[in-house]
Automatic annotation (TrEMBL):
CDD domains in alphabetical order: HTH_GnyR
Lineage start: unclassified sequences, metagenomes, ecological metagenomes
UniProt-recorded name of the protein: HTH merR-type domain-containing protein
Protein source organism: marine metagenome
Sorted UniProt keywords: DNA-binding
Sample GO molecular function, one term: DNA-binding transcription factor activity
TM regions (residue ranges): none
Residues in HTH merR-type domain copies: 17-84
Entry-linked InterPro entries: DNA-bd_dom_put_sf (IPR009061), MerR-type_HTH_dom (IPR000551), MerR_fam (IPR047057)
């Protein structure tokens, strides 16, 4: 549920951050796959020391990447879709 400030409220089960192993389990991909997408510039997790910390936005990006791969898009095309997702509303075409 979205609160009055436009943020997800706590009762949705959304977390503030995710580890690579949590995303790996949730999306049933290897940690190496997630690191590959990071190397390709499709994911940009923060780091705390040596540990990757993924935001809810990174989780959505991973979901878009995996959906795009399932639909047959190239990584370049998926990158374009992610750029549209990341752009400021009103500055890009329809997603």
């Amino acid at each position: 549920m979205i609160n009055a400030q436009g943020q997800l409220s706590a009762d949705t089960g959304a977390q503030a951050s995710y580890s690579i192993s949590e995303l790996s389990r949730e999306f049933e991909v290897t940690t190496r796959t997630i690191r590959f997408y990071e190397d390709e510039g499709l994911l940009r997790p923060d780091r705390v020391g040596r540990q990757r910390v993924y935001s809810p936005g990174d989780r959505v990006r991973l979901k878009l990447i995996l959906r795009g791969k399932r639909l047959g898009f190239s990584l370049s095309e998926i990158g374009d879709i992610i750029q549209m997702y990341d752009s400021t509303p009103g500055e890009s075409g329809q997603l």
